[in-house]
Amino acid sequence: MLVTWILAWAHIVSAIGWLGGGIVFGFVVAPALSKLSPASSGEFLVKVVPGVVRFFQIFAGLTVLFGALLLFNMGGLGLLNPSTFYGVDLSVGVAFALAAFVESEFLAVPIQLKAVRLVREMVASGKHEPPAELPKTLKMATVTSVLTLILLLIASVCMVGAGFY
Ligand code: HEM
After folding, report:
1. Which mutation among 4, 64, 159 tests ligand 1's pocket best, with the greatest number of atoms within 8 A of CB?
2. Contact between 105 and 60 (Cβ < 8 Å)
3. 3-state DSSP helix/strand/coil percent for the chain, to nearest 5?
4. Could you give the CA distance from residue 134 to residue 105 in angstroms, rounded to a whole number?
């Protein structure tokens, strides 16, 4: 019982960090970036975004790790039983959570780091004009981050629903 409680707490706190951080960054910080001058937003990209990306990677990994440990501690894969409402709810939640993790790790993060690299290369080469592919890369970074958020919100709705059965 104590182990379940600790795992549930660790899982929920990690999920809060991942989803809460994503909401603040996606709805407050990212839109505000477009109001900054190119020099300021470039500096923000190079100095702040790599740390933010690392934060999301750590909290995403911890959410999935503690979620998996919690699942096995509570009874294993048998809990994902499609003949019960609880099993369907939890299965859909896990599926969306895994989709969010894969989408974030293999699509959103590489695109965000590509934007950082493009600005770094521009600064290193002494140029003042942003590379032609930067606006498209930033747009892709926004789209993939919003997609991660949508998948995460659906996963969290299912998880909280499962808690009521
Ligand atoms: C592979 C990934 C995941 C696994 C295996 C997993 C597994 C679980 C399990 C077994 C529970 C306990 C359900 C119950 O009360 O019977 C749970 C609860 C919960 N999960 Fe996840 N989870 C995952 C990802 C996520 C994600 C991405 C979020 C949100 C961003 C999330 C948010 C929550 C919340 C808030 C609860 C507490 C529900 C409640 O008791 O009201 N989980 N999870």
Report:
1. 159
2. yes
3. 85, 0, 15
4. 20
Q: Measured from the CB, is residue 71 less than 6 Å from ligand 1?
A: yes
Q: Contact, 141 vs 108, CB < 8 A?
A: yes
CA atoms within a 13 Å half-sphere pointing along the CA-CB vector of 100: 29
pLDDT digits (tens, 9 = 90+) for 19-34: 999 999 888 888 888 7
Q: Is 133 left (phi over 0), alpha (psi -120 to 50) or beta?
A: alpha
Q: Closest Cα to residue 94, out of 82, 81, 80?
A: 80
Q: How far apart are the first and last CA of the chain?
A: 18
70: Cβ below 6 Å to ligand 1?
yes
The Å distance, Cα 92 to ligand 1 centre, comes to 11
What pTM did the predictor assign?
0.92
Residue 88 is which amino acid?
V
